[in-house]
Amino acid sequence: MAGELLREIMDAIGVQAFNFDLEETTDRLMGFLDRETYFVFVARDERQRAVGFIAMVESHALYAEGTFGTIPELYVRPEFRSRNVGLDLVTQAKSFGKSRGWTRLEVTTPPLPQFDKTLAFYEREGFAITGGRKLKVAL
Helix, strand or coil for residue 97? Predict the structure, then answer.
């Protein structure tokens, strides 16, 4: 599903922004999970097929007053959207974060009109815009 998410983002923005290799991504995921700083919840349908997932990373910052979580990925397959799958995943993430003593959850959405529905979803779930833009530099 991570590949589906990245493909959907790239299709929306019209830029080859990500390189996705299933085997490399699976290996990377296993390493993240083993270190217990990356956490994933998977939503399943009545036949136990994966229909969505949310990933969280544990971080630390003075501005956040301690340990907090970041949601780097949240994806629900298109045919399962508007069925509360995303809501259920975010609810699980909030509960999990509280159980770990996190002070907050953060998420970034691209500041583009193609992602207005994504922004509206997060705002409905209690997330507030705090300003800034996500920037990166390759190392």
Answer: helix
Q: Which residues contact residue 18 at a Cβ distance below 8 angstroms, ignoring those fewer than 6 apart?
A: 6, 9, 10
Amino acid in position 110: P
Enclosing H/E stretch for 98? helix 85-99
**Cross-strand bridge partners of residue 58:** 69
| Residue closest to 60 by CA, chosen among 113, 119, 102 | 102
Place of tokens 């998420």: 107
Q: 47 — phi, psi (to 5°)?
A: -100, 10
Cα distances (Å, whole numbers) of residue 13 to 27, 64, 77, 111, 136: 27, 31, 18, 11, 17
Domain ranges of the chain: 36-124
38-54 tens-digit pLDDT: 999 999 999 999 999 99
Q: Which fold has domain 36-124?
A: Aminopeptidase (3.40.630)
- Look up residue 76 and give its amino acid: V
Name which of 72, 62, 59 is nearest 101 in CA terms: 59
- pTM for the structure as a whole: 0.88
- Answer for the pair 54, 85: CB distance below 8 angstroms, yes or no: no
